[in-house]
Amino acid sequence: MAATMWSRATAAVFLLAAVLAPSAGAWGPFTHVAIGRAVLVRARAAKTSPLSFLQIEPNRSLFLAASMGPDLTFSVAGFGKTDRAFDRSLHDGRLGKALLAGAIAKGGSRRMAFALGWNAHLLADRVMRQPGSVIYRNVFELKPQTMQKLAGDIPGILKITIDAIRARQDPWILTTLPRVDVPQLVAGMQQVAADGASKPDAKLEARLAGYAESFADSLATLREICRTLAANKRAFPDLASELTDSPEGKIGQVPGMINLERIVHDRLAATIPAGFAPSQEEGAATEARPATGFFARVTASLTRRSRAVLTGDGFVSRVSRGLLDGVVGAMNALGVGQERTRRARVVATYLGEMMAGRRDWPAVKAAVRAAAEGAQDASAADDEEDRVIPDGPP
Ligand SMILES: [Zn+2]
């Protein structure tokens, strides 16, 4: 038991270090789900939205699960997006188009739900990856040159924090499990490869299936982190209000998010050709009928309860928190004065402090700043060493 907890906590730190790679996408996976849910709300409000077929199951679940999909090479074991080139091809706009074209040609609501979810992710990443975006905020008040050195890391920390903020507003987003339609993805990727006259990948199917598995594992760890962050009562509310347009100390909207959700909804709706009616013949018809009566009420209440347990601040996060403290101590001892460990120190300090929940936000901010700036002089020394021009004793 203890060993599992330890590895989970250690994994959490490395996972975060991994998420923070500079070219990582614009949003955390659970924020993508939140955006998907907002798109569904808009589609419902619009009444005649061509996306209204997404309101029924299993389309709805497929759409939300697919909206996490493009980040599927992200893995704890690999310390990040394990394959940059593959990650780029999963985020390739041409793949999004190929999935949509395939769904339109073949029909079928499930295929379309998957294609739309995938495209929702690509759109959301694109819209928000711009200067001035909330993920680039200097919440730790770091020096400009330190911000530059941590260019991919601070946005990574903030993305996970925004995941936690959105999860606090809507705990259901954490219960969404990633699902990848491998055959559909294979067809789409082969289509893109054929258009580009490059060779289709013979092992594509196995690769996708493998990534899908490790992605699910990584998300389980990330889910724990989000819950633990949001459960921090001393620092999280203040941090959250720095990242939101926060009314009277409450957690407000993430800036730009409403606009982003509108853009994603409108663009997705526009991709569906006029008169396109997704067929439900793939077995969705029975599932689409809303259940009524005694059993429906019982199962609904059980589902609600199990979701409440899933999203609660449970035993696991309490244990993880204590262990993370130890990890941070070890990381700091290990990394003192070394430029190459700056990133690990910053991530570990942030996570450890937030998960320990002992200090208020100004104190956490100061600790992260010390971890980030502390190696400033040492880093200059490292740079000197790299030049290999010994010009006297250090
Ligand atoms: Zn992405």
Question: What would you note in describing this structure?
Answer:
By secondary structure, the chain is mainly alpha-helical. It has a domain of 261 residues. It is 65% helix and 1% strand. It is built from 18 helices and two strands. The protein has a two-stranded antiparallel sheet with strand order 1-2. The longest helix has 28 residues. It is globular and about 55 Å long. The N terminus and C terminus are likely disordered. Zinc ion binds next to helix 6.
Order of helices and strands: HHHEEHHHHHHHHHHHHHHH
What ligands can be seen in this structure? zinc ion
Judged by helices, strands and strand pairing, the structural class is mainly alpha
Total count of strands: 2
Spatial separation of the terminal alpha carbons: 48 Å
- pLDDT < 50 runs, ≥5 residues: 1-7, 18-24, 283-291, 305-319, 376-394
Percent of residues in helices: 55-70%
The average pLDDT value, as a whole number, equals 74
Strand content: under 5%
